[in-house]
Amino acid sequence: MIDEGYIKFQCHWEKATTSQEDLSELILWRNKLLQMGLIGHYSDINVGFGNVSQKIEGKQFIISGTQTGHIEHIRPEHFATVTDYNISTNEVWCNGPVKASSESMTHAMIYENEPLAAGVIHIHSKALWKQLINKVSTTKKEIPYGTPEMANEITRLFNETEVKTQKIIVMAGHEEGILSFGACLKEAGGVIENLIH
Fold first, then answer.
1. In this structure, is residue 5 part of a structural domain?
2. What is the pLDDT of residue 69?
């Protein structure tokens, strides 16, 4: 059973209009990953999977909204801005037309641990997951997605593995779940594309 899509942190959401930031790269990569079958929707359990984010400044980043994996052509109104987060109290603050993705805290910790990162991608691929698990930086199997434990696990990987160089993380306890990051979304997406081709 895939445990996916549900927000596990306390979400402080302020409904707001679409971000004034340029979302063209976010939209491009999200739609491209959907076409590749790496972001999408599990129809049998009616849950979306996968997300993309782009850092703005400080702790702020824009991320695809929760449960938007089924949308064929994503638009600016399907993104939220994460304005702050607190790992120890399991809270995320966001604003926008939709609530931020359930993986927001994980994205936040990648940005926090790698200041040069400005793009993060979370995909699902059973084949790639099986190929890469424990061969690249891999979270512990007992760590669930979207939790303070996962956030702390991301920090552990940055401290103990070659994740800064590899730019990819396999989530052992989140079947099919893979994260990549880079200085921009093109770099983060390139990490995935290079492994598939």
1. no
2. 87
